[in-house]
Amino acid sequence: MISLNEAQQFVLRALTALTPVALPLQDALGCVAAEEVNARERVPGFSNAAMDGYALRAADTLNESVRLSVTGSVMAGDVPAKPLGAGEAMRIMTGAPLPSGADCVCMIEEVTIDPDGRAVLIDRVVRSGENVRHPGEDIDVGQVLITPGTELGPTQLGVLASQGFTSLLAHPRPRVGVLSTGNELTSSPEALPAGKVRDVNRPLLLALLRQSGFIPVDLGTVEDDAGAIAEELRRGVLACDAVVSTGGVSVGDVDFVKTVIGELCGERARSMQVAIRPGKPFAFGVTGSPGTPIFGLPGNPVSLLVGFELFVRPALRLLARHRVLERPTLNMVLDCALPRRRDGKLHLVHVVAKFHEDGRLHAERVVRGGSHLLSAIADANVIAIVPDGDGLDIGHIVPAMILDEDRLIPTPVRSTL
Ligand code: AMP
Ligand code: MG
Question: Which atom of ligand 1 has the smallest separation from the CA of 184?
């Protein structure tokens, strides 16, 4: 057996980030920028009203109360028809350009308007610049908007759109092929023939990949036949940036995947027994140049989930050039015991965890264990990382890998927000 750290390092060291491409902004959410982007326009581009109201000259309002004649109106998108003179006001709506001569806006709620709309009474001192948005207040020309390595969220994409950019150089989203292996598998919705099992791993992996922002590519199911597995993996490598297969990496008589990965990747492959439970058998290799990774995960669905979190997801995030590869990990207080036997392995235990009023994350319930028991872990939102030993009692602290942040808050707290 090798340590989890050694196995993870073997994977990560073998990988190179995908070559950046010009990505349309609408495809770039969650991708990582590969260039510095500088502002080419000021935002706002011109002085404009921050409120619906009247544009005027602050100097006209220095007395207690003043009547100004209304000489026109400017809506957002208009160009003011004329400048504004002393003793004048112009009706103006949010976002409309300030007429030249005006230096402030008095909000509509603070103005008394003559019934015919031709004059307004202002009975307060309005400061110069009040309710005016100034050119370049948000962004100035030449300002650095994006640096290489920036993860592109909605705000970054909005900022780029504010400059008229429609694409940028970024690392593409990895395309990831998914292959299920096993003579027992069927994908047909018909009644199960004797001895057959429905293919769970392929839909599971396709969903996991999509959820993490990658592009899943369905490579289908293949029988336990070394030649057929090799053919499908080769096909996947040609079409994808990475391939994940399930099943056939253990010590069974027809576990051919590990051998095939070895044949395809030569020196750059390794069939491992990782000191973790579940998910001990794991095969990995890289083929081609700079290299397409092939992951051979075990077939039991819970082992598969653990292998995805520990090996596949961080590796794919490296391909996409993310700075943070791992899920966030928090210390968690045990409200339930995590018993285990000493076996030289790190145990990865699916747990239902919530933040309590003490501000700490609490393990409320350990789900039923068993690497083949998928439905049992459906409620779990963290994976407790339990070190080798005799288990941990209530009150102990254990690191927890957060799988689903949205479900960390107890429901009653959320519904009162
Ligand atoms: P293996 O890793 O091929 O030895 O498979 C381990 C266990 O996982 C066996 O009970 C398989 O039937 C099961 N299994 C393998 N692949 C799948 C799959 N795609 N969907 C559901 N169960 C699977
Ligand atoms: Mg199998």
Answer: 12
